[in-house]
């Protein structure tokens, strides 16, 4: 007499594996796209938090604070009242410097941050410096003296290093230091 065994046949297992493989192949591109968008948004949110922190430091310490973006490995000069502070940055790094009023030099407020992997600055001008005054007001210092409020260009652009044509655009409002972050193609 035939006894009934519990379990699945080989054919049933192969069908289930085929269905799982099909669903996984459909969801992989969606997951990759989600990951890229998330990476761009994370970059924008990191910049937003750095601007907020720099403005808070300027107001609370009653001292000028500068946010410096490095789009390449270079050295910048931060000058105040004729005293110069030389700073060096690495590719895709963001630094916050606070003015030490005792000796009129700029000191690093916190460790520099790097953009997430596989993202980079594609800012219209080269290295940019944003200056927060003790009142919280924002001023801008660029390589060519361009003022973001007088141009139609976005202040900062971050792109993902892939074939995707999406970028993260960051606009900074001058009088409030508010940062607007959006991702678009």
UniProtKB/TrEMBL annotation:
Please tell me whether the keyword Membrane is annotated for this protein.
yes
Membrane-spanning regions, if any? 13-32
Q: Decide whether keyword Membrane is in the record.
A: yes
Keyword terms, alphabetized:
Membrane, Transmembrane, Transmembrane helix
Q: What is this protein called?
A: Type 4 fimbrial biogenesis protein FimU
**Native species:** Uabimicrobium amorphum
């Amino acid at each position: 007499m035939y006894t009934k065994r519990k379990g699945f046949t080989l054919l049933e297992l192969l069908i289930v594996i085929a269905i799982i493989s099909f669903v996984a192949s459909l969801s992989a591109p969606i997951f990759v796209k989600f990951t890229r968008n998330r990476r761009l948004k994370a970059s924008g949110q990191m910049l937003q938090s750095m601007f907020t922190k720099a403005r808070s430091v300027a107001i609370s310490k009653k001292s000028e604070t500068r946010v410096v973006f490095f789009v390449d490995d270079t050295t910048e000069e931060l000058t105040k009242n004729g005293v110069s502070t030389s700073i060096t940055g690495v590719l895709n790094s963001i630094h916050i410097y606070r003015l030490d009023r005792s000796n009129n030099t700029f000191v690093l407020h916190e460790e520099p941050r790097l953009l997430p992997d596989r993202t980079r600055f594609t800012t219209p001008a080269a290295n940019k410096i944003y200056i927060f005054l003790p009142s919280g007001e924002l001023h801008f210092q660029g390589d060519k003296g361009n003022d973001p409020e007088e141009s139609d260009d976005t202040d900062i652009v971050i792109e993902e290093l892939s074939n995707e044509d999406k970028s993260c655009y960051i606009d900074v409002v001058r009088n409030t230091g508010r940062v607007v972050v959006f991702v678009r193609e």
